[in-house]
Design brief:
Strand content: 25-35%
Number of strands: 29
Largest sheet: 6 strands, antiparallel
Number of helices: 16
CATH architecture of the largest domain: 3-Layer(aba) Sandwich
Shape: globular
Number of domains: 3
CATH superfamily of the largest domain: ANL, N-terminal domain
Distance between the termini: 32 Å
Radius of gyration: 23 Å
CATH topology of the largest domain: Rossmann fold
CATH class of the largest domain: Alpha Beta
Oligomer: single chain
Helix content: 25-40%
């Protein structure tokens, strides 16, 4: 077998996201927002739709035309739904961006947001009063594109109802890839692609009238926006939303919301499962039952068997079924989901030899790799070698994906689009192998470090080290890796010493840790000081980070 194929794609149930929301408005369920003290606000899907139509009227009155991009910088709450679905009803294209989080890195946030506003071509920005004060500099730095200015979310509901017809081929969403926090790319998705994605999710999950989706995931991220919000509106059914900052402060709120609302479906990046297992106390869940939770989707990061086992064991006394844990794989360029593990099966684990992986062979060893399942309906997966050939089972290569939910391309960037999309196939930049009809992801060909759910470009860490005496300038590699027995990805720094250096390597290691931590807030898990010339490079002198990681993992 050289290719994995999902079941046939289901027939589209709706032509556009607007048609999907209009259909959901005829269903009695809706969205419940949970606050920090667990007070709740509920909107039916009919209310969500009506509010969105009024928001569309407001946006049109401000000059927003069909096809215009509308940036949204809002936290989880009713206003986000007003702005997002309002832009769609206006025939416009929402561009969700993340709100400011840490005041200590505001200059970086302003620069990143200014760039995203500019490259997305947004003509208007919807935000709230408290965020608007912080984001003003980003708006000023975005250039002339934001000619319609800032719209206060509090004014959205003042307009007359409006809805503009669009087609499935029209652009529906620009979501930024999470490839790195330095240079995220604007992923352009059509209505047709998004409808195909949520239809595939519904086909895999097979929701019933008893299902309730509970999510703390941010709505500017594909897993929270497409997987949870659009997924719940598509089938349609009840959705319970918690702000992500509340989960991070008190992870028990997630599990308590699941118990209180008898939640059956929830998703989270991998770090969240280890985080909850460590931080939630028995008394936090006193009187709570997780027995209703039948699908716990785990993706967006490398999935480790140890963390899954710890989560299952930790919450088994509260009724959690270990078969609910479902490792999955996807990426924003494919709208969201590529593969899903089977429902009701405990995670499948292969033990491989990291040394054999250096030559692309998958052989038995002591490193655990978790299956992320088989392709969702309509999707095909190939693992390819360096020459682009499709590889057989148990051969490591680059993961390629084809299906109806792929992006149109990177907005305004035909060069990057041409590198990623070719002949209908998406080069994911991830490495993996397949066995027994299922996909196993093992590292990335693309350079990105994911630590506790946050994506970082290697440069963020490497540029901190140029002033350290005793290190070779430019001879540093920052990598994400899962340490043996670890629960998730950590930061690894490999640095070559100067040939003439007399500094104790242990002192150099600590200097690296202190410099990276002070600049980025991330403390490296492992630092290794290497002999000059150790790190692998291309013929043109570029760092081969992926090869460096494979050599490190193989003990070489």
């Amino acid at each position: 077998m050289t290719r994995l194929r999902g079941p046939p794609a289901p027939a589209p149930r709706h032509a556009t996201l607007v048609a999907m929301l209009s259909a959901a408005a005829r269903h009695p369920s809706g969205v419940t927002f949970v606050g920090l003290r667990e007070e709740e606000l509920r909107l039916s899907w009919a209310e969500v739709d009506a509010r969105a139509r009024r928001s569309a009227g407001t946006l049109a009155a401000r000059g927003v035309r069909p096809g215009d991009r509308v940036a949204i910088v809002l936290r989880t709450g009713p206003a986000f739904l007003d702005a997002f679905f309002g832009a769609l009803h206006a025939g416009a294209v929402p561009v969700p961006l993340y709100p400011p989080v840490r005041l200590g890195r505001m200059d970086e946030y302003v620069a990143a947001t200014s760039r995203m506003l500019a490259v997305s071509g947004a003509r208007a920005l919807v935000t709230s009063g408290n965020v608007a004060r912080v984001i003003g500099r980003a708006v000023a730095g975005a250039g002339p594109g934001l000619d319609l200015g800032v719209v206060d979310a509090a004014e959205l509901l003042d307009g007359p109802e409006r809805s503009v017809a669009r087609s499935g081929a029209d652009l529906a969403l620009v979501q930024f890839s999470s490839g790195s926090t330095v240079d995220p790319k604007p992923v352009a998705l059509s209505h047709r692609s998004l409808v195909a994605q949520v239809d595939a999710l519904v086909a895999v999950i097979s929701p019933t009238v008893d299902d309730v989706v509970v999510s703390w995931l941010p709505l500017y991220h594909d897993m929270g926006l497409i997987g949870c919000l659009l997924g719940a509106a598509s089938y349609p059914g009840p959705l319970v939303l918690l702000p992500p900052e509340h989960f991070l402060a008190r992870p028990a709120l997630w599990l308590r919301a699941l118990a209180r609302h008898r939640g059956t479906i929830s998703a989270a990046p991998h770090f969240a499962y280890a985080y909850a297992a460590d931080r939630v106390r028995d008394e936090d869940l006193q009187g709570s039952s997780l027995a209703s939770w039948r699908i716990a989707l785990d993706g967006a990061e490398p999935v480790t068997a140890g963390a899954l086992r710890r989560f299952a064991d930790r919450f088994a006394p509260f009724g959690l079924d270990p078969g609910a844990l479902m490792p999955v794989y996807g990426l924003s360029e494919a709208s969201l989901a590529v593969t899903f593990s089977p429902r009701g099966r405990t995670p499948l684990v292969e033990r491989v030899d990291p040394a054999a992986l250096l030559s692309g062979r998958v052989e038995a060893g002591d490193r655990e790799v978790v299956s992320v399942g088989a392709p969702v309906p309509g999707v095909e997966v190939e693992v390819r070698g360096e020459a682009g050939e499709a590889l057989r089972e148990r051969c490591l290569g680059r993961i390629h994906v084809r299906g109806p939910s792929l992006m149109q391309g990177y907005l305004g960037d035909p060069v990057a689009t041409g590198r990623a999309l070719r002949d209908g196939w998406l080069d994911t930049g991830d490495l993996g192998f397949h066995a027994g009809g299922e996909l196993f992801v093992h590292g990335r060909a693309k350079d990105v470090v994911i630590v506790r759910g946050a994506n970082h470009a290697p440069d963020e860490f490497e540029t901190c080290l140029g002033a350290i005496e005793g290190l070779r300038p430019g001879c540093v590699a920052a990598l994400g890796f899962v340490p043996p027995g670890g629960d998730g990805e950590e930061l690894l720094v490999l640095a070559e010493r100067l040939r003439t250096s007399r500094v104790d390597p242990a002192l150099l290691e600590e200097a690296v840790r202190e410099a990276v931590s002070a600049r980025t807030g991330v403390r490296p898990h492992t630092v290794r000081i290497l002999e000059p010339g150790t790190l692998p490079r291309t013929s043109s002198g570029k760092m081969r980070r992926g090869e460096a990681l494979r050599r490190f993992q193989a003990g070489r």
